[in-house]
Amino acid sequence: MPIASPDTWNDQLAPSLDDFARLAREAFDALPEPFKSAAGDVVIRVDDFADAETLASVDLEDPFDLTGLYHGFHIGERDGFGPAAEPSRVFLYRRPILDEWCERGDVGLAEIISHVLIHEIGHHMGLDDDDIDAIEAED
After folding, report:
1. Cα(19)–Cα(25) distance, rounded to whole angstroms?
2. No. of H helices and E strands in the chain?
3. CATH of domain 21-138
4. For residue 42, what is the DSSP state?
5. Residues 60, 93: Cα–Cα separation, whole Å
6. Coil, helix or strand at residue 82
7. From CA 48, how far away is CA 58, in angstroms rounded?
8. CA distance 67 to 96
């Protein structure tokens, strides 16, 4: 099979924030039902990068090191008698996700977006990174 000429990429654009939002919505809609129900009212937001304050809060300097972040109280910490003070949010960071996708080259972009989304919703459910990794290893 011939290798594509670099010229064939002249008309290609990086997926936009809207493209990422669509892929994240598709990933959310495809979640297994117990996981999807537990996600509840989580707001999914797509930004190019985390801001400096967010990076500092997780002890990172390089904005390419953060692909996603959960912000809010996990469901086990919420007051059962009222709503959370503000909605729980999952942030997906487009540029670091694109960078990971390009560097890996072995999985599709939608798969990486789905992985980051599931990871951050896991935090919403009160799971830590080790719990999430163990669940993913079972699949």
Report:
1. 10
2. 6, 3
3. 3.30.2010.20
4. P
5. 14
6. coil
7. 17
8. 5
Phi-psi map region of 83: left, alpha, beta (phi>0 left; psi -120 to 50 alpha): beta
Residue type at 68 in one-letter notation? G
Instruction: Give the global pTM.
Output: 0.80
Cα gap 99→109, rounded to integer Å:
10
pLDDT in tens, 43-98: 899 999 999 999 999 999 999 999 999 887 666 555 555 555 677 899 999 999 99
Domain ranges of the chain: 21-138
Q: Is 95 helix (H, G, I), strand (E, B) or coil?
A: helix
pLDDT tens column, 25-45: 998 888 877 777 877 778 899
Whose structure tokens read 């942030």?
Answer: 91
Considering all CA atoms of the chain, what is the largest pairwise distance in Å, rounded to the nearest integer? Answer: 63
Instruction: Tell me the Ramachandran region of residue 40: left when phi exceeds 0, alpha when psi lies from -120 to 50, beta otherwise.
Output: left
